[in-house]
Amino acid sequence: MAIIIAAIKASFGKEEDNELYEEAMDGYLDLIDNNIRMFKGGIKEIYAFCKGIAENEPALNVKKKGIECLVSLVENRTNFVKSMKKENPEIFEIILKTMILNIREPDEEWTKPKIDVKTDDEIILFCIDMLNRLIETLGEIEALPIISKNVKTLVKSGDWKQRAIALICYS
Hints:
mainly alpha
């Protein structure tokens, strides 16, 4: 496992290698999805690695892979990850922060009256899908209090981006 992480890190931070880095993350995601038993003793290390990418990677396509790895880790190691009470809220927060940082600036389309608050922004749709996968995996009893707490905080914010994301989450 350390060799796999080292190989992925070798291309980390090199702008010209973002495509290679994304491909390496795809391979890592495939391993998590299909061969999770291979990582039996290193789940916390995998979590920390993926979390670092999801939080700190400037390239959005690679950041998405980090988020997807975290969600897949929860899906494939549900019993273990359910015991990670501190980490589950962190994953929700990472996804919500990604949404806030990447929501489009208002344009004339936003000023038209409409009833639904749906969006066609790719990153927002990706994050909504990741939130839905987490809720489905963890179950409503565990996931909804976490997301509700975060959304309540977003609604109270003075930042329009945070309130917009809260509305999207409510819908």
